[in-house]
Design goal:
233 residues; globular
């Protein structure tokens, strides 16, 4: 089996690229999940309390009426707007006859929201009590805005490249996506509704879930190539 796989990789650049993506995806997904679990353990042991509070106080020093409005806007981009954005992107993909991509997009986003809620209820970390600018009623860890926005904008950037193969456009959208994701995380700390460790955990959870799904997809495609080449022997 290994000899067949080696032969297929040598004769097919696509298979070789897929194998590299599977290997890289495995390390990124497993590493993200491991870091998330480690961070969650530290949070449960309250080892991050001092660090989190120091960062919160630092952020609060920069508060101003104008910045308050700006941060609420970025927070909005990681909250309610994702629902409408997800529906719009799914409809567009279906209209363009990209049923597989539409399902993948909806599945990744929908499951990310469910996983976030599950992790929140398992951890049960209360929200920061230091002068929040908005009130949130659910638990704090991990940040749903950070996790959901990471998955939404990362998947959007991935599908742009996957469907268009336009490297320049994909690069621009990826940079914009990274910028928005980071600002959403910053806004949640600034507004006082999340600790920095909540936001970091949201990013790690989103990265682990996003790369995990792509890893499964790439592995299935690689396995399909392997089976097709095996039948031609």
């Amino acid at each position: 089996m290994l000899r067949k796989l080696n032969r297929i990789i040598k004769t097919s650049p696509v298979a070789f690229l897929l194998l590299l993506e599977v290997i890289l995806g495995t390390f990124i997904s497993a590493g993200s999940i491991l870091l998330f679990l480690t961070l969650r353990s530290e949070v449960l042991e309250k080892d991050f309390v001092g660090f989190d509070n120091q960062i919160l106080r630092l952020f609060y020093q920069f508060r101003s009426p104008l910045l308050n409005q700006l941060m609420q806007f970025f927070s909005y981009l990681g909250g309610e707007v994702l629902v409408g954005g997800a529906i719009l992107v799914t409809v567009v993909l279906l209209l363009k006859k990209h049923k597989r991509e539409a399902f993948l997009f909806s599945f990744i986003l929908g499951m990310a929201a469910l996983i976030d809620n599950l992790l929140k209820n398992l951890t049960q970390r209360t929200r920061p009590q230091y002068f929040p600018l908005i009130i949130e009623r659910d638990y704090s860890f991990p940040s749903g805005h950070a996790m959901d926005s990471f998955v939404f904008y990362a998947t959007l950037a991935y599908l742009t490249f996957h469907l268009t193969k336009n490297k320049k456009l994909s690069f621009i959208i990826s940079i914009i996506a990274i910028f928005i994701i980071l600002l959403i995380g910053v806004s949640r700390i600034y507004l006082g509704v999340h600790y920095p460790s909540d936001v970091l955990a949201g990013y790690l959870g989103g990265l682990g879930w996003f790369t995990g799904i792509l890893l499964i997809e790439k592995t299935l495609v690689l396995f399909k190539l392997f089976r097709e080449n095996s039948h031609t022997d």
